[in-house]
Each structure stands twice: as C-alpha cells, then as structure tokens.
Design a protein that fits this description.
494 residues, Growth Hormone, Chain: A, 3 domains, 20 helices, 0% strand
Length: 494
C-alpha cells in the first residue's frame, strides 16, 4: 500500500538511484585521480620535495583506510543516509580547502577530508542491495565495484588536462564542482536509511584497526626514504602486525565487532577478500609503472616524454575495457563456477603485465596493454562484490564490503611502493632515472603475483557455488544455512 500510495515519484527516484550511486563511485575515482598525476606539479607550485608532495596522495589513502570500516558499520543501520551525506559534505569541503592557495598545510588537510569519500562505495553497494529488487541489484552491485576502477582512467586525463591548461588549483575546483553535484543528487534521490536497530560502534576495534592500517600505509609510503632495512621502519611494521593480531583476537571475541571476521569462514567471502588484496596490488603495480614509463624523457633510452594529459589518455582504454568486462562477466557467471571465472580474469591480467615486460617500444602498444589490463581487473572487480553480497546477511553488507575495500587500498599502496622500490634498485648512483631493465623486473614480479593468484583461485572458492554476480535468488533452505540466515531469508523474499 505504501508503494502504491507513493506512486510515480518513488518509481522515478528508484530509476534514478543507480545513476546516482554510480556518480558516487565516479566521485571516489575523481578524488583519487587528484593525487598521483598532480604530485610533480604540487612539488613545483608549493616549493616542496617530491617526497613531501607525495603526502597529497598518501594522506587520502590513510584517511580512507581508517574511516572506511567505521563508515561501513555505521551505514549498516539507520544512520546510512546521514553518513553518506556527511561524507559528501566532507569531500566538498576538502576540495574547496585544497583549491584555495593557502599553502601545503591547507592542501594536505583538504586531501585528508577527501579521504572520507573512499568509504562511499561500500555504502552505495549496501544501498543498492536494500533498495532495488534482486534482478536490478545484482548488476548494479557489479557496476558499482567496477566504477572506481573505470574512473581512474577517466579521471586521470581529465584532471591532468585541467591542471595542465589552467593550473594546479583548477583541478581541485573541478573536484569541488563534481562533489557538489553528487551531493545535490544524493539529497534528492537517496532512499531513507533501513529500519534496523542502530549498530553499536566497536570503538576499540576501530582504534586498533585504524592505527594498524595507518601505520602500515605510512611504512609503505616512507620505506624508500627511511630505508627498507632501517630500525624505524622495522619497528613500525612489527608494531602494526602486533596490533592487527590483537584486533583479530578482539573482533572474534566481541559480540558486535567492527568487522565480523566469522563471515570469512565462508569461502566465497575469503576468496573475495584475497582477490581484492592481490588485484589491488597487481593493478597499481602496473599503473605506476606505465604512468612513469610514459613520462620518462626519450633521452633515457626508453619512454616517450609524454605530458600528464597524454599519460592520462594512455589509461583511458583501461577504463573502457573494465566497463566492458562488467557486461561480459554476468553472462559467463551464469554458466561457469567461481574458480574458473576468477582464474580467467587473472589470466587476462597476467597477459597484460607479460606484454608490458616484452613489448613497450611503441606508444600504441601501451594503449593495447592497458585495455587488456582493464578488462582483467574489471572482470575480477565485477565478481567480488557479488560473492560477498550473496554470502552475508543484509545487515552486514556495508561492513563486509568496507573491509573488502580496505584490502583494495592496502593492495593499491603496496603495488605503488613495490614499483617505486624496484625502479629505485635499478637506478645508478647519481642518476635520476632507472634503467629499462627495472621496468622488466617489476613486470615479471607482477607476473608472479598473477600466477600465484591463479593457483589460489583454482583451490579456494567453493567448487559447487556459482559466481554470485548473476546467481538466482537463493531459496529458503539454502539461505537458512548461510551466516545470518534469517536476515538473508528476508532479503531473498524481496
């Protein structure tokens, strides 16, 4: 009766919901793209070292890793809509603060506020699951997962071109305009928060996980400056590992954890989380290599001396191919087991990095390589959320997806640092540029990562289970055997 009474307005808002949720994913991509391509420009404009300018990227990832699990847990209850809108306000404020020429401190503070936007995708996925019928929510969930990947290739050339044509701060003003548009659309279209009991926030768990993740990301970002064998770095890593171990013990013992690690007993959830970490590492390892290789002056004996804008265009096929993968994966997932679907995605990614190791003398080759890489990464990112959504109760969706998202960020940072460390190891004393062999070594390491992931994908997923991206709604008997079966049974009934 309530739906009939609301009539067309509700129907119109529901039709607009997926585009608005996708716009949140694109916003996350734009926020991310405001970092890496602009680091050299920030160093020049603010008269700081490249290492200091790198904090404009690092601080966003640090904040995102810390707040994403908290936002996910808060968004699993009646606070979801306020949490989403509050994060959008923070991102808008951060963009404006970074756009004002107030110095490096203001820029870094603004980039820290933008980090709250990195927690929006899990909440968008939870919203799609709750507000849409199953036949629309499954493809919407897959699309939302791919959006952040596709947006990287779209955001880099746009922000790079704006910064190159109109200056550094114009890029951040562009981010402010996009954020404002997303905020207005969210206010109009987002449905009310689900009517569930407000989850009690696990403050000790949030502090332990946030501190450990922040420390690990800090160690990864500063490893090259401090030295890989320095006592300071080793002490920080050991301390963070101990904190993570303490966090795991705490989460398993508490009645209402920040992240319900018991759900990882489901092999689909475990597979999705392992895939998120490895795919994030492999993705940023290749992206970091390609963007640096393309901008290297030809005088080095390799590279193309391309501008930031041209470098961004090289990534455009990555985005387009990842979106294409999102169309293909559901068709295959209906007919093939999860192990085969994931293994094929890993094989495509392996082909991309192997091609980079062997063929990168022409610029067109890099366009092809990035298209293949985008198809492989988009393939896996389209599968992961469906595996989680199909295995956890509705009231745990935001939290479970947030933890998966954090693992992606850890993978992103690790891949970026690994590429920098390998290239630095192949840089002669007194030289500013690595040898071409450094790129081949890093690409072969990425090949090893994907080979290992193919082996994991072959044995870890449940053998009888189909990929959840396009799976039919579960029956009541199957649902009752899942963790949180009562909650999922209600979801299936919808």
């Amino acid at each position: 009766m309530e739906n009939a009474a609301m009539g067309n307005p509700r129907s119109g808002r529901q039709r607009a919901l997926v585009p608005v949720l996708v716009s949140l994913g694109m916003l996350v991509a734009v926020v991310s793209s405001l970092g890496a391509p602009l680091v050299p420009t920030i160093a020049a404009e603010e008269h700081v070292s490249l290492n200091d300018a790198q904090w404009s990227l690092t601080v966003t990832l640090l904040v995102g890793a810390v707040v994403t699990p908290v936002m996910g847990r808060l968004g699993d209850g009646p606070r979801r809509r306020p949490v989403i809108l509050g994060a959008l306000v923070a991102v808008l404020t951060g963009c404006v603060l970074a756009a004002l020429p107030l110095g490096m401190g203001s820029l870094v503070t603004g980039r820290a506020l933008q980090g709250l936007g990195l927690g929006l995708i899990p909440l968008a996925i939870a919203t799609a699951r709750d507000a849409l019928p199953p036949e629309r929510s499954r493809p919407a969930v897959a699309l939302l997962s791919i959006t952040t990947v596709a947006g990287v290739g779209l955001g880099y050339p746009v922000t790079g071109l704006i910064a190159q044509s109109y200056g550094l701060y114009a890029g951040f003003w562009f981010g402010a305009v996009v954020s404002a548009a997303a905020l207005v659309a969210a206010v109009v279209v987002l449905p009310p928060s689900p009517r569930r009991a407000a989850p009690r926030l696990d403050v000790p768990g949030a502090v332990l996980l946030g501190t450990a993740l922040a420390g690990l990301l800090l160690a990864l970002s500063e490893a090259e400056l401090w030295g890989w064998g320095s006592a300071r770095l080793l002490a920080l890593v050991v301390g963070c590992v101990l904190l993570l171990a303490l966090w795991v013990v705490h989460e398993l013992r508490t009645a209402r954890p920040l992240v319900d690690l018991r759900l990882t007993k489901d092999r689909s959830v475990l597979t999705a989380n392992v895939t998120a970490l490895v795919a994030g590492l492999g993705m940023y390892l290749l992206l970091s290599l390609v963007t640096r290789f393309v901008q290297t002056p030809r005088e080095a004996g390799y590279g193309f001396g391309a501008s930031v804008a041209v470098t961004g265009l090289v990534l455009l096929p990555f985005s387009l191919a990842s979106l294409a993968a999102g169309r293909v994966v559901p068709l295959l997932a209906r007919r093939a087991p999860t192990a085969l679907v994931l293994s094929l995605g890993c094989a495509v990614s392996l082909a991309a990095v192997l091609a980079f190791a062997l063929a990168r003398e022409q610029l067109w080759e890099l366009f092809v390589i990035m298209a293949v890489a985008g198809f492989g990464i988009g393939w896996m990112f389209a599968v992961m959320p469906g595996m989680i959504v199909g295995s956890v109760p509705a009231h745990e969706t935001g939290s479970a997806m947030s933890f998966n998202q954090v693992l992606r960020y850890v993978g992103y940072s690790t891949g970026s640092v690994l590429s920098a460390a390998i290239l630095q190891a192949h840089t002669a004393a007194g030289s500013a540029l690595p040898t071409g062999d450094g790129y081949r070594t890093a690409a072969l390491l990425a090949c090893g990562v994907w080979v290992a992931m193919i082996a994991v994908a072959a044995v870890l997923p449940p053998r009888r289970r189909r990929a959840a991206v396009a799976a039919p709604a579960p029956d009541a008997a199957a649902v009752s055997r899942q963790p949180g079966g009562d909650a999922v049974r209600h979801e299936a009934a919808r």
